[in-house]
Amino acid sequence: MEIERARRDYEELRGKGLKLDLTRGKPSSTQLDLSAELLRLPGDAHTAADGSDTRNYGGLQGLAELRALFSGVLQVPTGQLIVGGNSSLAMMHDSIVYCLLGVPVGGERRWADEERVAFLCPVPGYDRHFALCERFGIELIPVPMTPDGPDMDEVERLVAADAAIKGIWCVPKYSNPDGVSYSAQTVARLAAMPAAAPDFRIFWDNAYAVHHLTDQPAEIADVLTLAAEAGHPDRVFVYGSTSKVTLAGSGVSFFGSSPANVAWFLGFLGKGTIGADKVNQLRHVIFLRDEDGLRAHMRRHAELIRPKFEAVDRILSKELGGTGLASWSSPAGGYFISLEVPDGCAKEVVRRAAEAGIALTPAGATHPYGNDPADRTIRIAPTYPDLEELEVAISGLATCVRLVGAEKLG
Ligand code: PMP
């Protein structure tokens, strides 16, 4: 009997006393080692391209040479990029605070003075986007993802009808967690759709802009230009960072937008700091050099993590293929695999895995308010453990899916 075999396998799994962590999309220490040289930089160098001394105050917008290096991959003109600290999430947070406490460009009042503020959240999506909105009382409205990006019929309908909808979260390339890259048509529709709110914003979190796993990099359309051409120049806030390029804890982040939004953002930023950490910016420029240097560096990451993504796919196929108990994404980039189990099973699979010493992102985290109504989606983050640990963890996870599937579905 399948259920007996599943129970036996599960007891055996528990007996192993595992302690494995697949919760967060962190680079492994071997990946961090790829940027070891960064810790020895900038050495004696301290002069920026414009002749300024990076050790001193100033340079609020960030080094122009670093902005130029990332301008192409983020699809934002150099003059319209701002370099932030080590976290793009912090720049998203600050953008929301600035919108709440200061009137956004084109807006009529501060978001804090609106009766209701809501964001569309394509699901499955990134839990920290949702948590950030929740913290400030912004209502979260889920919209389904499709293989081309968010369901645009639904997005257009909601955004045109409800002036309380001020934003949408988008991870346009190798989305967290399902690996989807938005089609050109989706991007064009997002850029051009009518919005009831005059200060509607697309939060374009291009966290995985250069994080390819294959030799055919995904290309996405240039949302900033398309929005400007459609008469919505101030609609898009673009974000990116080197958290998964260089050092997750000591990288640099970016905000990009229209000239008016960049001036608006700098107006707030400049009240809280006299200037950015330009020494870190300079060492990033020396280390990455140019776009070719960046791409070569990302190929080295891909060589380290591709085998991990392949192992997940191979083990899930072997242990769950043809059982009807699971389907999963095979992303061409990014940091995550999304595993779909039968309705009503995700929480129980995660609980059983935890009992066997395999920590997974909580079921539901991929949805607003931590509530996946179908209780079906599990996010797998394969990059951090080493390959052997990962193989044990995924095989254990498959055992948990078989057990829960057999118990719940008979
Ligand atoms: N956005 C997305 C979609 C992410 O997956 C992550 C990291 N998991 C972040 C942002 C965090 O970026 P940062 O380190 O630049 O704050």
TrEMBL record:
InterPro entries: AspAT_Ic (IPR024551), PyrdxlP-dep_Trfase (IPR015424), PyrdxlP-dep_Trfase_major (IPR015421), PyrdxlP-dep_Trfase_small (IPR015422). GO terms for molecular function: L-aspartate:2-oxoglutarate aminotransferase activity. Pfam families: Asp_aminotransf (PF12897). Keywords: Aminotransferase, Transferase. This is Aminotransferase. It comes from Acrocarpospora macrocephala.
